[in-house]
Amino acid sequence: MLDPHPNRDGSAGLYGYSVGTTSKSDGPEILFDNFKVVRNDD
User: Fold this and answer.
1) Burial track 2-35 (b if 16+ CB lie within 10 A, e otherwise)
2) pLDDT tens for residues 1-22?
3) Composition of the chain by helix, strand, coil, percent to 5
4) How far apart are CA 11 and CA 7, in angstroms?
5) Residue 16 CB partners (closer than 8 Å, separation 6+)
6) Average pLDDT of the residues in 32-41
7) Residue 14 and residue 9: Cα distance in Å, rounded?
């Protein structure tokens, strides 16, 4: 998958939305598997 609007500043990172997350509850875990962060040489 290629990000059409990459963030070229800062560290590489992942974002996930967890249903049920509130100020009082962390919500369920989000697990990521089989992903790579690679350098974009553009």
Assistant:
1) eeeeeeeeeeeeeeeeeeeeeeeeeeeeeeeeee
2) 677 887 777 776 777 888 888 8
3) 0, 0, 100
4) 9
5) 30, 32
6) 80
7) 14
